[in-house]
Design a protein that fits this description.
Elements lengths: L1 H22 L9 H93 L2 E5 L2 E5 L1 H15 L3 H14 L6 H14 L3 H14 L6 H14 L3 H14 L4 H13 L1
Antiparallel strand pairs: 1-2
Helix pairs in contact: 1-2, 3-4, 4-5, 5-6, 6-7, 7-8, 7-9, 8-9
């Protein structure tokens, strides 16, 4: 806008000078030639001075405008750099947040797995309900393991070794729910090794201590067998008769009837 004003003023000055030149012949009565020349020279000098001032102002304005443009460009570049830096920081933060989320999820999964593993280990150490020979009771994990180990030895036909295992079990766990069954299988192991007297003791203990146990009918039949082996025929007959009377519907009672028939 300022530049347009400067150019506009210079144009008016030049136009005025031109008009004066053309008017000089017509106004010869007012001015002589010398005065006209001086007036024209003076006007030209003023025009040249105005042009120089105008050019100087134009240079100053142009320089200032260029400096302002350069400053504006620098400001824009700096702003763009700042925006790029902010974008980079945001991307970095997003990456860190995503990594933190992954790390947290992994930590939670590990904690869950550790808690489950700890719970599993704890459950292995805690007493648990078991059912064996028709009876439900609570047993320690190591107690259950030791009984099953003794049974496994018996099932392999290693009767002498199973006898040792059952005796050790009964001594270590005197209040165990497995105790009646342990006495029954101990008696069977002793019978298999022809230790009839000790077998007789264990079968009788089972019957006396747990008369309602599932193995009692079989134990009474085993007592009669032991009595027959040690030549206590009269006692064996009495045991068989008691078995038939107390547990008439069992397989052991049916076997007892057959043996009584042979004894007669």
């Amino acid at each position: 806008m300022k530049l347009r004003k400067l150019f506009s003023g210079a144009g008016r000055s030049l136009a005025l000078a031109a008009a004066l030149v053309w008017m000089a012949p017509a106004g010869a009565g007012l001015f002589d030639d010398e005065e006209a020349r001086r007036a024209i020279l003076d006007l030209r000098q003023r025009i040249e001075a105005s042009s120089q001032v105008l050019e100087q102002k134009m240079l100053v304005e142009t320089k200032r405008s260029n400096e302002e443009d350069a400053q504006l460009r620098r400001s824009l570049i700096e702003l763009q750099n700042q925006l790029e830096a902010v974008k980079a920081d945001q991307a970095k933060l997003r990456g860190q947040n995503e990594q933190m989320a992954r790390d947290l999820a992994e930590l939670q999964r590990k904690q869950k797995d550790d808690a489950q593993a700890f719970g599993d280990r704890l459950r292995k150490l805690e007493p648990a309900k078991v059912t064996f020979d028709g009876r439900e009771f609570t047993a320690e994990p190591v107690e259950k393991r030791d009984f099953e180990t003794a049974m496994a030895i018996f099932r392999k036909g290693e009767f002498a070794n199973s006898e040792v295992a059952f005796v050790d079990f009964i001594n270590r766990y005197p209040q165990s729910g497995y105790r009646p069954s342990a006495m029954f299988w101990l008696g069977n192991a002793q019978y298999a090794t022809k230790d009839y007297k000790d077998a007789l003791v264990n079968f009788r203990n089972l019957v006396a201590q747990t008369p309602d146990h599932l193995r009692v009918p079989e134990a009474m039949l085993a007592i009669a067998n032991c009595q027959l082996e040690i030549k206590e025929t009269k006692g064996a007959r009495k045991t068989l008769e008691d078995l038939i009377a107390r547990h008439p519907s069992t397989e052991a009672a049916a076997a007892a009837k057959e043996r009584l028939a042979r004894l007669k």
